[in-house]
Amino acid sequence: MNSNLVADFKGLMELLNPCKTPLAVYYTNEKPVKTIGPKGGFCIDCDDISEITSGKVEIVNAEQHRCVFSYLIRTLKNGVPSSFDADNFGCGGCKFAFGFAQKLCGFNHYYLSTGVPGFNKGERYVRRPEDAARYFSKPLEGRIPKGKYLIFDRLENALDKKVDIELVIFVVNPELLAGLVTLARFSSDSENIVETHYASGCSSIFAWPMMNKINGKEVVEVGFYDLTGRPFLEPKDMTVSIPYTLFVKMLSSYKESFMTVEPEKHGPPNWWTLARKRSKGSKTSLMMQIMNFFKGRSSKKK
After folding, report:
1. Is the pLDDT score of 287 beyond 60?
2. 196-214 as b/e, with b when 16 or more CB fall inside 10 Å?
3. Alpha-carbon span 111 to 216, nearest angstrom
4. In this model, does residue 284 exceed pLDDT 80?
5. What are the structural domain ranges in the chain?
6. Fewer C-beta neighbours within 10 Å, C or N terminus of the chain?
7. Residue 80 contacts by C-beta under 8 Å, 6 or more apart in sequence?
8. How far apart are CA 280 and CA 268, in angstroms?
9. Among the listed ranges 39-43, 59-63, 118-122, 262-266, which one has the minimum average pLDDT value?
10. Cα gap 5→252, rounded to integer Å
11. What is the spatial distance between Cα 51 and Cα 227, in angstroms, rounded to a whole number?
């Protein structure tokens, strides 16, 4: 454990306050002693929907369907890691998003679009099954899991372990999202620092960020547009997934960034202004800062 890294993380969290602790994500072949997670999962490995409608392929284990976020939110709250693997994944979409299936099966293409006759009406997130394949499956195929288990743990816990952290995931409101993205911009030489994709919640926090890493992109992935998963989040919550290598750069540079610059007497609002607003739970300080800014400009003209 790098003591400087831990100290810098604590310092950054103070500047982001109030902010939920972030999650660290890593693969491992040794499952932690105490975890939460799904038992089994609901996934129909069938590309021809007629095999289902004709009864040739039976729909089984539907009761084992569980959204990944029902576990991740508990990890955020109580600190017990969430664990997923090829046999225990909860949802077929999650199995693919986490790399334990090489493609999204045809059943899901119908499930996301027009529906499966005799089973459901379809989520109608895209018009046609082929659209679901084009948007949700093909761009993310080819990822190979680096271990038997995929673990989501609080970052402060993961830093104490000898694991290779892949991503750091924040669940934040738009204001803190803006701060993290701006800090990423300050800390990186990448030309484009932000990407966002319409995807399932598990793909937006993990599959797309991992695909970006495979493609050599050190970028922040912003989500969360999944209407099925959003009930697990607060109304204003969004997700920010950051490659661990970039997050380490952010930890080493935030003390030199906008986050530690006090506002000038008649200057424009900045991060400190927003921090005061958050601490007071009021917009008064922000409005006063704006008024002082324009008042200062007016007095200079005179």
Report:
1. no
2. ebebbbbbbbbbbbbbbbe
3. 32
4. no
5. 3-256, 264-301
6. C
7. 34, 35, 36, 74
8. 19
9. 59-63
10. 8
11. 29
